[in-house]
Amino acid sequence: MAYENILYAVEGGIATITINRPDKLNALNRLTLAEIDGAMAEAIADDAVTGILLTGSDEKAFAAGADISEFADFDEEQGTELSAAGHAIFNGIENCEKPVIALVNGFALGGGCELAMACHMRIASGNARFGQPEVNLGLIPGYAGTQRLVQLVGKAKALELLLTGDAIKADEAHRLGLVNHVVENVADLRAKGLEILNKIATKGPVAVAHCIALVNDYYDMEENGFENEIETFGSLFQTPEFREGTQAFLEKRAPKFRG
Ligand code: COA
User: Fold this and answer.
1) What would the pLDDT profile of 218-228 be if each residue is shown by its tens digit?
2) Beta strand extents in the chain (DSSP E only)
């Protein structure tokens, strides 16, 4: 299948999906998300594929978030739809029966961090930065960041990252358990990802699929949090602070949320 915003390749049984909008720091617009979904389906359907790597082109960004320019004028209904569509795609990645590893090669902010968190493992290069900066836009994460961040780093740190919007470096992300491994350079990411996926490829695929499903089952009790996030995300699209936050970003100025 031909894609516009991603690259898709299969080599040695491993599929690689590369987000390819470097001039927009690989921001996840609707087409890009749909294409990631399409490439995932292609990889799942291909019996030759045993594992999937997901990464960003260039050395600057894995993905710097959902594409703010695309949703800045959305209303509540559109915001809810945007979030629900993203949840469906990211849930598909999380529940993929083949292992999916994010190779985080730079900024993984907002939807980029959420995309990495939906993968089964994350490997970061030294220049990677993780964060959920949505509060800067008067918004919250819309692709399950409020849920998966807690699962990965625990409540206290998740709240700190969500409420401050601060980005953390790769080493800190590793210390917190947000990433599995850190490699020094972007060029080293692929080798580490392949090492893990090729090892998993020697194991029983049915057993591997069950491990993924059962680990996901552990978190099923938090389903309401996922639903609530979709509704809350949508409701914020009618607030003045969301308008101010997104406009300020597009106008390249600091937002004024109070007074
Ligand atoms: N949505 C849409 N466009 C984005 C984007 C996003 N999430 N992140 C970056 N871009 C665009 C910029 O608008 C800019 O486009 P332009 O050249 O047409 O003006 C381009 O990508 C490069 O970004 P720029 O901001 O110039 O790079 P920088 O190195 O100065 O800053 C960041 C990098 C990541 C700190 C900054 O781009 C940023 O804060 N991005 C938004 C992060 C965010 O809030 N994500 C959550 C969204 S819900």
Assistant:
1) 887 656 777 88
2) 6-11, 14-19, 51-56, 61-63, 100-104, 107-109, 121-125, 129-131, 168-169, 181-183
